[in-house]
Amino acid sequence: MFDTLTDRLSGTLRGLRGRGRMRPADVDEALAEIRLALLEADVNVAVVRRFVERVRERSIGGEVTASLTPGQQVTKIVNDELIDILGTSPLDVQFASKPPTVVLLAGLQGSGKTTAAAKLAQWCKSQGRNPLLVGADLQRPAAVEQLRTLARSIDVEVWSEAGDPVDCAAGGLSHAQQAGRDVLIVDTAGRLAVDAELMTEVARISDAVEPHYTFLVVDAMVGQDAVATAETFHATLEVDGIILTKLDGDARGGAALSVAEVVGRPVAFASVGEKIDDFEQFHPDRMASRILGMGDVMTLIEKAERVYEQEEAEAAAQRLVEGTFTLDDFVDQLRQLRKMGNLQSIVSMMPGVSDQVRNAEIDDDRITTAEAIVLSMTPAERVSPEIIDASRRARIAAGSGTSSAQVSNLLKQFTQMRKMMGGMMGLGSKRRPAGRKAARKRGKSTGRAGGGSRTGGGGRATPKGASRTGKPAGKPSVADIDWDALDLKLPGR
Fold first, then answer.
1. With contact defined as beta carbons under 8 Å apart, do 206 and 234 qualify?
2. Is the sign of the CA dihedral 484, 488, 492, 493 positive or negative?
C-alpha cells in the first residue's frame, strides 16, 4: 500500500544522509518533497501541515546542528514523527479480571467489520482465550451467515437472534457469561454513509453491553473520507482504538497516516491479507520503519516463529552446516515460507533491500513451480542433484509441466543457496571446499557435493551443534552475514 510513499520518502532522505552539514535551505528543500509525497498519498492536509512543522522545528534546532551526521539525524526525526502520527506505541490489550472482556466493533458497511471480527477472535484464541462472536448486524443480508462461515473455520461459536440488534447483543452477553466465554466480540451493522439511525443503534448496543474496548474498523483504501467517519464515530462512542483493514491493497494509504492523529486514538490491529491469520497487532515504530524503506525485522521474526518449529529449524541448520541439506529440505523450507504469507510483503520487511527488489512483482506461484519440479525427481536425485544430466532434466521437466531451463535454474539456485547458507552458518571464508577433492583433503570419501556421504555417514568438520567459528549452529551474528551476496530471486525467474 505504501510503495509510492516509501519510494518518495526513502529517496529524499537518502539524499540527505551523505551530507556533512545541514543548512536550513537543505531542510526546507527536503521538507517540500516530503510534504508533496504525503499529500499525494492522500494524507489529511492538517496532519501533513503539523507533521512538517514539527520536523522543521526539530531539524533546524540544536538536535541536528550538534549532530556529527545531520542527514541521519533528520531521517531519525522524520521516523520519530511518523511514529507519533501512527499512535506512538501499540495498544496493550488487557483482558478483564471478571470475564467476559467485551469488544464492540463499529464502522461503515464494506469496511470489513465482519471479517475483522473473525480475525480478532482468532487472535484472541492465539492468546489462550475462549471467544464468542455476536452477530448483531441484522441489516445486511447474510451478514450473520458470513460470520458463521468464518467462525467455523476457526472453531468459534456465534450467537445471534432475529429481532432487535440491541436485544441480540444483550443476549449474546448473557450467553457468554453462562457458557464461560472470556471474550465477547460484537459485530454491529454499518451503512454506506454515517447517518443518525446508525449512530443511535450502535450507541444503544454500546450501552447494553458496556464494552471494555470499542474498536472502529476503517478501510485503509478509503482515503480522506475515513477521517470524517472516524471523527463522527469517536464523538458518539469514544473509540478506544482503530482496526485498519485492507492494508495489503494498492491504494495510497493516507487513511492509515491520518486517522490516529486526527482522532487521538491508536491503531490497535491491522488486517494485512485475506487469510484469517493475516491479522496482527499494530506497532507504529515498525510501520514507520516500513514506510521509510528500512524493513521490519521484528514482524518478520514473529511470522517465522509462528510458522517454524524450533527443533525442525535447528535440524535444517545443522544439515546446512554439515553439507547434507537436500532438495527435500529445500522444498520443506519453501512450504514454511509460503505459510508466512505473501512473498511481496515478506521481502518488504527485509532491511537493506533495494527499491528495485522491493517493488518487483514476486509471483507466489514460483514456490508451487519449484515444489512441482522437486517432486518430479527421484529420491536419489533429490539427495544428489549433481547426477541430474540432460535426459533426467527433460524427464523432470515433463513430469512437472515446466521446461528444462527452469529445472536447470532451480538446481543452480539450490546450489548457490546451499553455499550461501553455509557461509551464513558461521563458516565464512573458511567454508569447506566441496566434492571428492575436499573429502580427500579431510581423509574421507564422499559422493555428495558439500561433504556429506550418500550412505548417510558423512563426515563432520565441527562438533554437532557448533560451527567452524565455535558459535551455535543456526544462530549466526549479523556481522557474519554477507548481505550483498543474498540472491532474492525465486527459482525460474
1. no
2. negative
